[in-house]
Specification:
Largest sheet: 4 strands, mixed
Order of helices and strands: HEHHEEHEHEEEEEHHHHHHEE
Strand content: 15-25%
Oligomer: single chain
Helix content: 40-55%
Number of helices: 11
Radius of gyration: 22 Å
Strand order of the largest sheet: 4-5-7-6
CATH architecture of the largest domain: 2-Layer Sandwich
């Protein structure tokens, strides 16, 4: 392949980046420049070696601006919308990643969290990126907003949905203690009316029990806890362990949430 082809591709990537796009697929480039598979592989190896691009997933690449060349990757907000469209999945950025957007991550999370429709999506894990996909069969888009980014928009869970997901997926983020530590910072973004509406739409009743218990008994956020209890009052709910991973001989539920406090919740100092 001649250097002219290389130059065309360099110019093409620069043009896309100038329009605020930071991703491309192998098929896109092959069709644009009428390349053979072998010619594309040679071209892409050259660009990978120069840190002009990075492979995120098979056939899906990131365009790396000079300011990110040393990291060999981009912030999630630059590419997640394009990636999920490429994978043909509805999604939203959630859990610790969403909490970080609301100033409540406590510490910069090493792993990014994306909630996606089934079926299973394997995580993206390498030296540059760690992205975990949490599966959910469906959600109300009223509780997911579009946030503007340098590369367009991303879907992100509302503070109330983020709070519920932190508890529901607590095993994915390091457990109940980690969830509670983040909740302690997230509460400033929570509004009782919105929390009630979001909880009404959340089908996992045990999550409402656990979140209500944490807000009420651990964080002393009674008004927010009451907003969840309004929803529980309209459902049948049964004793549930605070930590679902640990069995407890003591089955007493000395609280209005019918939560068996089978662990001591420890919140990191903020």
């Amino acid at each position: 392949m001649s250097d002219t082809h290389y130059e065309y591709l360099d110019v093409y990537l620069d043009e896309m980046r100038s329009r605020g796009r930071f991703t491309f697929t192998s098929n896109e480039v092959i069709e644009k420049f009428h390349l053979t598979e072998n010619a594309f592989k040679k071209t892409i190896q050259r660009l990978l070696h120069k840190n002009r691009v990075a492979r995120l997933r098979n056939e899906f690449y990131l365009i790396i601006p000079p300011e990110y060349a040393s990291r060999q990757t981009l912030p999630l907000s630059y590419f997640i919308d394009d990636l999920m469209k490429f994978l043909e999945r509805d999604y939203y950025v959630g859990l610790l990643t969403a909490a970080m957007y609301y100033g409540a991550a406590h510490q910069q999370p090493q792993t990014q969290f994306v909630v996606s429709e089934p079926p299973y999506l394997r995580p993206i894990k390498n030296k540059q990126q760690s992205i975990v996909f949490c599966l959910k069969k469906g959600w109300n888009t009223d509780f997911v907003s579009q946030q503007k980014t340098d590369a367009g928009y991303i879907n992100i869970s509302s503070p109330a949905l983020t709070a519920l997901d932190l508890v529901f997926y607590s095993d994915r983020i390091g457990g109940i203690n980690r969830a509670t530590t983040v909740l302690a910072e997230l509460v400033i973004e929570l509004k009782p009316d919105t929390l009630t509406k979001t909880a009404e739409d959340f089908s996992q009743t045990t999550t409402l029990q656990r979140l209500g218990f944490l807000l009420d008994e651990v964080l002393q956020e009674t008004t927010l806890a009451d907003a969840i209890h309004i929803v529980l009052d309209s459902r049948k709910y049964y004793p549930a362990q605070l930590n679902p991973k640990t069995e407890s001989e003591n089955q007493k539920t000395p609280n209005r949430w019918k939560i068996i406090p089978n662990m001591k919740v420890e919140v990191d100092e903020l």
